[in-house]
Amino acid sequence: MLLAVLMLCPCRAGAHSEEASQKHQAGDPFPKEEGPAVGIDERLGAKIPLDATFRDETGKTVRLGDLITGPTIILPVYYSCANVCNYLQGGLARVLPTIKNRPVAEYRVISFSFDESETPQLAARYKRMYLTSMNVPFPEDGWRFLTGDAANIRRVTAAAGYSFQRRGRDFIHPVTTLVVAGDGTIVRYLYGTTFLAKDVSLALLEAREGKAGASIRKVMEFCFSFDPTGKTYVFNLLRVSATVVILCAGGFLAFLLLGGTKRRKPGTLADKKEQD
């Protein structure tokens, strides 16, 4: 599915309100240029290349496979963006302390810049900013900030169906978050800069690939479904209500049948004694 709403994140510093950002997201017209269409072509079930290498916020070269060892939330951004990329990462920073999943032990977050000119020093600065904004302790290894060369960036974004274009110092790009399993399989796309705790928790549950047990996964999949239009998990009220009604009716019927059988048994024995 190719999203029609594209977003530009300005590099220029300045005061930007989220309301102004939303208006900007609606899109000022941009001149056409050669290159891939900008947007998301969802590739659920595809795998991102775990052998792709980046530099982390300390400047160390790391493989994605060394970081993605379980459910992982991936945010494609560029750090010098003063607009929606900040809202995207800030929105996630606000919701992570509210979910029950334990960082590092049960999930990890990766921000990676698709601007090959950005440096680990810049990544480290933004890491400090977002971890500090949480106002609660969050492990350093729980949220990694990566930079890389153009070749590795394109490998990851192409595998995810994530297309962007450079416009001068800025980029036109979708505002999208990926959730992947430990083997790099893409299990969910989350859209926009606002996160709901239940959406993040259920997406991480999907990414566990049955590690929590098939029964839990089946119950969650039965009670909740992902709405591709609203881009959120919704409670299947009719399905759950119908199931409860059927179970109650079945239980009541079983009670009547078993209760009637028990009441008839004494009478049957008495009849036999009278016949004797």
Automatic annotation (TrEMBL):
Q: Per its UniProt record, what InterPro entries does this chain match? A: SCO1/SenC (IPR003782), Thioredoxin-like_sf (IPR036249)
The family database entries (CDD domains) matched by this protein are listed as: SCO
Q: Does the keyword Transmembrane apply?
A: yes
- Annotated TM spans: 233-258
* Heme in keyword set: no
Taxonomy, superkingdom: Bacteria
Q: Which UniProt keywords apply?
A: Membrane, Transmembrane, Transmembrane helix
Q: Which family does it belong to?
A: Belongs to the SCO1/2 family.
* Listed name of the protein: SCO family protein
Q: Give the species this sequence originates from.
A: Oryzomonas japonica
